[in-house]
Amino acid sequence: MTSLSNQSFDFCLATRRFCEDVCRRHPEFHHIDMSRVVVTFAQTRSPVEWGMQAKLTPLRFRNGALTERRGRRTWTVQRLFHERREMYYILTFYLPRFLNLSYMEKLITVFHELYHISSAFDGDIRRFDGSCYMHTGSQASYDRLMEKFVKQYLRMKAPATLRAYLKYDFAGLKRAYGPVVGLRLPVPRLIPLDDAA
């Protein structure tokens, strides 16, 4: 692994490079254009290890729609542009919590969030049948599928250097490469387009 500077480690850049390789190699993720997915991090407020490790935020509604009717109001999502391109998704990791997972748990978490991206890559999430439309009715079975995808990816001779930073916990990464830095963004807001009747 190469330090991204002499003074700090850019977690978001390293994670973007890893995700780009996953999407290039594994057929289940070929539809993802990482140039329209912004990778960010958020700092966890509590030192406890349980809780959210990562989150995918879609920037469109169902089927990629720019607006959605909810009750008596029509809403849109605040548009997000990064490096002059409009983003369709925000992929956020919660630090230090995410980095303090085991190595395999970290890989599964990355795949878990990427798989939430719609197969149409239209800014919406992947939706499954049933009431639990995000995790096929069972998050445990969803993560077992992600573990299968991870193992397939690891057999594809993917360069270990791209994921070497995930071998460290948060404290270890700081000791090896200095402060952990990266892009931080506020979550885009829902914006009403009309007054409630």
Walk me through the structure.
It is built from four helices and ten strands; from the N terminus they run βαβββββββαααββ. With 197 residues, the protein is an alpha/beta fold. The protein has one domain. The radius of gyration is 18 Å and the shape is globular. The N and C termini lie far apart (58 Å).
List the helices and strands and how they pair.
Layout: E1 9-10, H1 11-25, E2 37-43, E3 54-58, E4 67-70, E5 73-77, E6 81-82, E7 85-86, E8 89-95, H2 103-115, H3 139-154, H4 170-177, E9 180-181, E10 190-192
Parallel strand pairs: 1-9, 2-8
Antiparallel strand pairs: 3-8, 4-5, 5-10, 6-7
H/E order of the elements?
EHEEEEEEEHHHEE
Low-pLDDT ranges: 1-5
Question: Percent helix among the residues?
Answer: 25-40%
- Per DSSP, the total helix count is 4
Structurally, the number of domains stands at: 1
- Kindly report the average pLDDT value: 88
Arrangement of strands in the largest sheet? 2-8-3
* CA(first)-CA(last) distance: 58 Å
Instruction: Describe the main β-sheet briefly.
Output: 3 strands, mixed
Number of strands: 10
As a whole number of angstroms, the C-alpha radius of gyration is 18 Å
Morphology call: globular
Beta-strand proportion: 15-25%
What structural class results from the helix and strand content?
Answer: alpha/beta
